[in-house]
Amino acid sequence: MNRLAGFSNRSAFVATITVVVWILFTSPSSACKCKGLSVTDALQHSDSVFLGRVVETKLDVGQRDYSATFEVFKSWKGVSSPRTQVSTEVAGEACGSEFLCGKTYLVYVKAGRTNACLRTIGAGRAANDISELGEPTYVNKSAIAW
Question: Per CATH, the architecture of 39-139 is what?
Fold first, then answer.
């Protein structure tokens, strides 16, 4: 009988620890939290805004971020060349953006970095932003249409 009581206490302890760990790591406090910026505010706040396709990604060893190199199709601010590089957090509370090679994104950049809080999104969901941004200041005429 003693053995069963010890097993029950151990099981209860393990179950309690499991629940506590689950609550700590899945709670909303560890999720990305952003103040929603309007397109106008995001444009004003950013150093550069462009539409481009990811041609390369590189994990910065020892860092919590990675960089993505883009073929720029259009720019509304700060980019006037066919390629540019941007860094972002890998994940977590910093709201890093996920970039996949070959995919196109509308990217808002501040000090060489971007994240979801700056409105960076995939091109498939960017039609409203692109419309609101108006005429681009740079168009890469040699880029294949996105």
Answer: Beta Barrel (2.40)
Closest CA relative to residue 52, chosen from 131, 120, 135: 120
Kindly report the backbone phi and psi dihedral angles of residue 96, in degrees, each rounded to the nearest multiple of 5, phi listed first: -55, 150
* Predicted model pTM: 0.75
* Domain-wise residue ranges, the chain: 1-30, 39-139
Residue found by looking up tokens 């090679």 in the block: 101
Each residue's pLDDT tens digit, 67-93:
999 999 999 999 999 999 999 987 556
Regarding beta strands 104-109 and 83-89, do their DSSP bridges make them parallel or antiparallel, or are they unpaired? unpaired
The answer to whether residues 113 and 96 touch, using CB atoms and an 8 Å cutoff, is no
Helix (H) or strand (E) holding 128: helix 127-133
